[in-house]
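Entry 14. Ran structure prediction on the chain below.
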Amino acid sequence: MNLKFVSYLSILIIISTLTSSYSYSESVQTIQNYSSNDSSSSSSHFEKTITITGIKQDNSFEPNPVTINVDSIIKWINVDNDIHTITSGHEDDPDKGLLFNSKIMSENDEFLHLFDKSGNFNYYCIVHPSMVGKIIVK
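Output, structure tokens:
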């Protein structure tokens, strides 16, 4: 078996284990199956789309940083051909992934998230920790 393949497979297993163990906070909500025509989401609105462009440190997410209002939804789209995650916090944060965690995103995958509290929210990619972003909620 190819050593590169085994290393890649090991990384995927570790990431899968890490991402499945996180819980979500009540203060920030992850949106699943969100539709802009959904009447139950009328108090929230879609604010920004962020593209995942690749491994470029703080330029990996465009735009970055992003400023939005409370009760706004951010949509991330992975336009890179590599896998990525959108994970709250940063690599050394003991609470990483507690506010939001997209799981593994392949090319063209999307992740939506409702920010219902004000504050500064850092995020990064578990697979490539140098990929960092920030959401500022007013």
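Strands lie at 28-31, 45-52, 61-62, 66-68, 72-78, 87-88, 110-115, 119-124, 132-137. Will compare against last week's run tomorrow.
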